[in-house]
Design a protein that fits this description.
The complex is a heterodimer. Chain A contains eight helices and eight strands. The longest helix of chain A is centred in the N-terminal third of the chain and has 15 residues. Chain A starts with a helix and ends with a strand. Chain B starts with 9 loop residues before the first strand and ends with a helix. Chain B is 35% helix and 16% strand. Chain B is built from eleven helices and 14 strands. In chain B, α4 crosses α6. Chain B has two domains: 260 residues, Rossmann fold; 97 residues, Rna Polymerase Sigma Factor, Chain: A, CATH 1.10.1740.110. By secondary structure, chain B is of the alpha/beta class. In chain B, the strands form four sheets. Chain B has an eight-stranded mixed β-sheet with strand order 1-4-8-5-11-12-13-14, with helices on both faces. A two-stranded antiparallel sheet of chain B has the order 2-3. Classes of the chains: A alpha/beta, B alpha/beta. At the A-B interface, α3 and β3 of A face α10, β14 and α11 of B.
């Protein structure tokens, strides 16, 4: 189930990117997205991943991957050395998301960021009616063991980009199999009904 | 050291080789060994570079020492580098003492062993000498080249000097230049040898003796640097060697002392003291960024070779940081590079040991590179 959803997100990301480009996948996991981008869009991929087992999976698939921590090791990638940098569902887990975001924008000509949307209606109702930190399919951890330090909503990230003068090229909301474009005029409603937000910025 | 080197594979290199020091060597022997078979498409050749005290006998039983090859954990039938599938080649470095030209060989000018008249060689000289072997074996492009420690240094040099000679490369636990600490440890080893009166300015070879005491101390220094503090504590602690209490003497009371003495003196049976001087010197002179004046990134410009760098968390001789610097430089030059740090307590020695995560990573990479290389050859 989780795997299928992952694939939907990756499909949306793959559709966002132009083919025959260079992509850095930050927190690339077992390399599923890199594999998809390489096979379907002839994209030259590179990955950065902390987990040893995942690193091994990538190497096994013949995908170039560097074992390392995005929070501290993005400095090794030169300015504007990739067409895109992808960060899937990890921005909220960094100590300093703004610093990481700046680094991504430095390395990539464009940046794709996906976030689990804390503004999704189910998340809101859990907190409102049960008075407990929400546990959902996209946010499976409880308050004491979650890696997520800086949860945000699609609206938060949208406003953040505005405030920091970061150019938003496209925002897509994902709910199960449905995707929709998000802009200023439908932001409130999409922020309520999207499980995931995928931003193309830079 | 009194070993017979008659029945080993040797290539007589007839091309003159101009060394970095300015001197030229002519008609020199290069000893080597191979394992497995080169296939028809010639897409399965893997070149292994050995470390400071290694030799060409990577796996199986070393015919000279009658002991297991130095990389039997990684290379062999069904191993990470599977000799049922791959053709593995390894040559003894020049300056060494397992059949390739070294300070024990006869100097054609004086008709006596070279000793210190042997030219000072570099890592680059070593790999340039080995290029002739690939030519001899009819291999235009290797599937992969690999090596740990000084083997990794040779490999980095090989990739920058001959960027078209290998499809992929796995430098392990190495550095692009020797640090002050590494030079200091090598100097300690050299001083131990040179302080032994038997050494006699390297002329001991004429008398067919070996400065065993000095060479053994040199080897002990090495052994300490190959282990981690934690690994050593776990292996030996303060355990005593076959005794209930201290002897109140300077005999080997502790197990760690006994271990070092044993390793040190066993080493003198198989390795030439002058070779240690020459090879450690070559390691100290190694500085890839110095060769490419702009720095390490320049060294890797336009690299098409696919790299996998591996370091070990408890290695204090060739640290993760030093290995990562190579990754950073490769990244900056846009090369295809993977990197993995293996978490272990076993120190620098890890690459020679049965470290499952390490061996799994090595196998995954080489097998996936083989698929890619076959495709490339098909196209």
């Amino acid at each position: 189930m989780r795997n299928l959803k992952m694939k939907k997100e990756f499909k949306v990301i793959a559709d966002l990117l132009s083919g025959n480009t260079r992509v850095l996948d930050v927190g690339c996991g077992d390399g599923s997205l890199m594999d998809l981008l390489k096979k379907e869009k002839n994209i030259e991929v590179r990955g950065l991943e902390l987990n040893q087992e995942n690193v091994q999976q990538c190497i096994h698939k013949g995908l170039p991957v560097i074992q390392g921590n995005a929070e501290t090791e993005l400095h090794q990638f030169p300015d504007q050395s990739f067409d895109y940098v992808v960060l899937s569902q990890t921005l909220q887990a960094f100590y300093d998301p703004e610093k990481v975001l700046r680094d991504l924008l430095r390395i990539g000509k464009s940046v794709v960021i996906s976030i689990p949307n804390f503004g999704f209606w189910k998340v809101r109702t859990k907190l409102l009616f049960f008075g407990k930190m929400p546990v959902t399919k996209t946010l499976p951890n409880t308050w004491y063991n979650t890696p997520n330090l800086h949860m945000c909503t699609i609206k938060d990230l949208f406003n953040f980009c505005d405030e920091k003068n970061i150019n938003i090229k496209k925002v897509i909301g994902v709910n199960e199999d449905k995707t929709s474009l998000i802009n200023k005029s439908n932001l409130e409603i999409k922020n309520l009904f999207s499980k995931l937000g995928i931003f193309l910025i830079g | 050291m009194n070993i017979k080197l008659e029945n080993i594979k040797k290539l007589e290199v007839n091309k003159p080789l101009k060394l970095d020091c300015g001197k030229t060597i002519n008609n020199f022997p290069l000893a080597y060994e191979t394992y497995g078979k080169l296939n028809e498409n010639k897409d399965n050749a893997i070149l292994v570079f050995h470390a400071l005290t290694g030799d060409q006998f990577v796996t199986g039983i070393n015919p000279i020492t009658k002991k297991e090859g130095w990389w039997v954990t990684a290379v062999g039938p069904g191993k990470a580098i599977d000799t049922k599938k791959y053709f593995v080649i390894c040559a003894n470095v020049i300056g060494g003492c397992m059949g390739s030209l070294g300070p024990r060989n006869i100097n054609p000018e004086t008709k006596t062993p070279y000793g210190l008249d042997f030219p000072v060689i570099t890592i680059k000289d070593m790999i340039r000498a080995q290029e002739s072997l690939l030519e001899h074996l009819g291999i235009k492009k290797l599937l992969c080249a690999t090596g740990g420690s000084m083997g990794g240094m040779q490999l980095l040099q090989f990739c920058t000097t001959f960027p078209d000679k290998t499809f992929s490369a796995v430098p392990i636990a190495c550095s692009s230049s020797h640090s002050a600490q590494n030079i200091a440890l090598n100097e300690l080893a050299r001083q131990a040898i040179m302080a032994d009166p038997v050494w006699d300015n390297g002329k001991y070879v004429l008398k067919n003796v070996q400065p065993k005491n000095g060479l053994a101390v040199a080897r002990m220094v090495g052994h300490i640097s190959y282990l981690s503090e934690k690994g050593m504590q776990e292996k030996f602690g303060r355990k005593l060697q076959e005794k209930a209490d201290y002897e109140f003497s300077f005999n080997a009371d502790f197990q760690v002392e006994s271990y070092l003495r044993h390793q040190g003196y066993a080493f003198t049976e198989r390795f030439d003291a002058n070779s240690i001087l020459y090879i450690t010197r070559a390691m100290d002179y190694f500085d890839l960024s110095k060769q490419f004046k702009g720095g390490l990134t320049e060294a890797f410009n336009d690299q098409k070779i696919k790299f996998l760098i591996i370091s070990f968390s408890s290695d204090w001789l060739y640290t993760t940081k030093e290995n990562k610097d190579i990754v950073i430089a490769l990244n900056a030059s846009g090369a295809d590079v993977s990197y993995s740090e293996i978490i272990t307590d076993k120190g620098h020695d890890s690459f020679l040991l049965d470290e499952p995560e390490f061996l799994k990573t090595l196998k995954s990479f080489i097998d996936s590179m083989h698929e890619k290389f076959k495709n490339e050859k098909r196209v």
